[in-house]
Amino acid sequence: MPWVAENKVSLDPGFQDCRETAIMSKVNKNPLDKILPKLKCHFTWNLFKGESISHDLEDRVCNQIEFLNTEFKATMYNLLAYIKHLRGQNEAALECLGQAEELIQREHADQAEIRSLVTWGNYAWIYYHLGRLSEAQTYVDKVKQVCEKFSNPYSIECPQLDCEEGWTRLKCGEKQNERAKVCFEKALEEKPDDPEFSSGLAIAMYCLDKRPQNQFSVKVLKQAMELSPNNQYIKVLLALKLQKMNEKAEGEQLVVEALEKAPCQTDVLCSAAKFYKRKGDLDKAVELFLKALESLPNNGYLHYQIAYCYKAKVKQIQNTGKLETSGHREKIEGLRKYAVDHLTKAIEKGLDLLSVHPDLIRLLETEENRQTVIDSKELPNTERQQLYQRYSNNFQEYRGKSEDSAAQCYSEGLPITTVATEKEKMKYQLQNTGLIHKLNGDLLQAAKCYEKELGHLRNSPSGIGSLFLPACELEEGSEEMGQGAELCSQRTP
Question: How far is CA 356 from its chain centroid?
């Protein structure tokens, strides 16, 4: 019937589009499901393994975009796009990928196709998540067109791609450092004298190396410095290594030179501050940490380091034995206040309370200092509950009593609105009993309590091992604690 046919044709165009899109989805989504996991990009590198992103990672990535040489910015724009996607900001993520693509075309015209593979892979994944399947397919086809030249439809082995993956993993935390090292080693197999690959390997090895006398790490750092003499960050990492090997004068010379040539580079500032903190020059360390904080105001690691330096300055004054004068007493109280203020900010910015040094925990034993932290308007409810639970008014009373009494006190310290199961109560008891053991110096018993609670051993990737490190390592503020290892990715001034 003509009327029926005519009526069929005159269906609402919007409805027709929707129906066609639905049909296209059924046809096209299945192949994309199989193809996308084959692409080499942030979505397939398993960077965070289901964990939440640190509070200040985006700030640090943006900071590096500001300070990196132009030819390296595309790597950070790709990572920033992935972070935006994980936060549900897909349109902003697409803008970042546009920036990365533009930089690659401008700075690496002779290698644009290969260097764009990661960006195109990210584009395909984001469009897929947005349901814009035809656009996702366009970028999959771009990848395929390049990879087929190397007899592989969707991925290729290439040192530039290994390098980009390496830098990205270094930026994503200490759990990624081993894999980052493998990426740079693989890239160097193809190009042994490449300055960028060499710098990446040196930084990854430094972040992994906890042994003071490891000559191989020093050798790699020196080789990287020879290939990249203007990389001030490599210079400071070598200085820190030399300091541990008791070659302090040579190390300090490198630090001074790096600060002269890169006075605003945050990773140089942070590592130089660590050098002076180890040396005992706490005023210089605080100065450098505060300068880095201007560029990274949301970095809990920096606030923690500053708090520790102020507390260490209190110890320095106490060790002189000059506590009789009112001037010294006032100075000590002022330093303690600064320490509490920065510790509060560190907790606000997401610092894990389990990794706080015992000396800083003791700052919270006074009612006034506890309330300063607990009353902070920016403190998330979960952290407030944790603090309330750990540092309740009964802390001093129960600290010297039995474990059972202390654990019971902490369990009763939970806010009345919390509905705790028996399993949760047991968890809180184990957690806080472990804290008491830690404060009393019994690290073995503390380890047993935390192991029961979390089901992890000392060297597990959970990071709980930092609770039981020797005091000297804790005082250094190991990169594992927070953002230090993630600061290990600046390549050039």
Answer: 17
